[in-house]
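Quick one, tokens below:
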């Protein structure tokens, strides 16, 4: 076999390998088992899990696990086709009806991942001749979706409705205009300024899409960012994922019936990909019912995040403020971030190391509804130990 330029490019890529050899590689950690609040890493180490998006603790809930097992027994392991042809189950239809009802939207469309929900919604709706205006910190899937659509793309400054309004005013664009934001930004946990965004879109006849991957199931007893601002009826398009608060995998687009009907026949990420598995779909449906019946979970995760924020701030860490389960800890630079990340694991605590270009260096810490106070205190104690041992870590004098 001849070795072509593309294969040579891969062979000369050593960054990942070098970092692994230096013991400074924070990606693809492997877990051998998981249960509420804790996980066992491959190799045996038990860690308190402060780095998952399982905000309500439903991924290991016995009722959700049983629903997945029952669906597998009834329908099989996979649907082996797209919803368009042979892969549509009554489970997908039921989940759509219950999602629409819970989130207060006329219709829902279930796709196989949240990533695909964004691809399907943006590239299904927009094409050449349209304009997508996108927040500079919007999720990668929204950026990919905008590129895939072949619409013109313009960026506006993060969470800056004045910049958006200026751009909408100056565009002179004649085609459709889609404004794309995250409801909750995943790296900092900040919310989009929804009231001002809605106002600007209304003034300039633009359509607003809110990716509520991190707000759905969490804010306002689970009804998400739009409901948190009392603006559910003012946001025409919302996308969701089941890989966070719903503890499963899958995604959805919520909107008017005619938009969902249009996407059923134009969203290529839906039409040309196999449907979410019976287990994933049943798990998401069971989670939705549980979160509806158990609003205490939203209060519990908010309480845990407030506790962790307070305790880490008292240790001198610079911690992002906010009302979401995402507790970003500013770590200064890359070596300090990786040093702290490794030491935290040694101390039995797992968090996510985030490095540029994804965002400025930080430990993205996150809470769930099922973490116990004892588990959170173990995490705080580990952060206290790390504070003393990592040179260059951004910490103030302990408060
Ligand atoms: N949007 C946002 C804001 C996300 O954080 C993610 C997942 N990281 C996605 C979309 C994609 O969701 P999924 O994991 O279901 O593909």
């Amino acid at each position: 076999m001849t070795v072509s330029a593309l294969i040579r490019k891969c062979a000369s890529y050593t960054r990942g390998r070098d970092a692994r050899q230096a013991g400074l590689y924070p990606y693809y950690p492997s877990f051998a088992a998981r249960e509420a609040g804790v996980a066992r890493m491959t190799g045996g180490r038990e860690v308190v899990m402060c780095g998952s998006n399982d905000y309500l603790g439903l991924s290991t809930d016995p009722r959700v696990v049983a629903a997945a097992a029952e669906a597998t027994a009834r329908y099989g392991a996979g649907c082996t086709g797209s919803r368009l042809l042979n892969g549509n189950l009554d489970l997908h239809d039921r989940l759509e009806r219950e999602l629409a009802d819970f989130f207060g939207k006329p219709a829902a469309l279930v796709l196989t991942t949240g990533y695909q929900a964004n691809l399907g919604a943006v590239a299904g709706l927009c094409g050449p001749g349209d304009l997508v205006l996108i927040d500079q910190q919007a999720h990668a899937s929204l950026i990919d979706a905008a590129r895939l659509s072949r619409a013109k793309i313009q960026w506006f400054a993060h969470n800056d409705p004045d910049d958006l309004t200026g751009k909408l005013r100056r565009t002179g664009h004649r085609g459709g205009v889609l404004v794309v934001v995250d409801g909750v930004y995943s790296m900092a946990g900040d919310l989009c300024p929804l009231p001002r965004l809605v106002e600007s879109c209304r003034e300039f006849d633009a359509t607003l899409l809110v990716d509520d991957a991190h707000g759905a199931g969490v804010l306002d007893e689970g009804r998400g960012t739009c409901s948190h601002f009392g603006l559910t009826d003012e946001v025409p398009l919302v996308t969701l994922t089941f890989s966070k608060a719903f503890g499963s995998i899958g995604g959805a687009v919520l909107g008017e019936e005619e938009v969902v009907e249009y996407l059923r026949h134009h969203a290529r990420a839906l039409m040309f990909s196999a449907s979410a598995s019976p287990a994933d779909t049943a798990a998401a449906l069971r989670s939705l019912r549980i979160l509806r019946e158990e609003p205490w979970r939203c209060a519990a995760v908010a309480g845990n995040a407030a506790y962790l924020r307070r305790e880490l701030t008292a240790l001198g860490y610079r911690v992002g403020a906010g009302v979401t389960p995402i507790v970003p800890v500013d770590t200064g630079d890359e070596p300090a971030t990786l040093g702290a990340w490794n030491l935290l694991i040694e101390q039995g605590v797992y968090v996510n190391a985030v490095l540029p270009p994804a965002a400025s260096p930080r430990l993205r810490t996150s809470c769930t509804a099922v973490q116990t106070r004892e588990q959170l205190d173990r995490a705080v104690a580990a952060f206290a130990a790390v504070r003393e041992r990592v040179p260059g870590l951004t910490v103030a004098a302990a408060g």
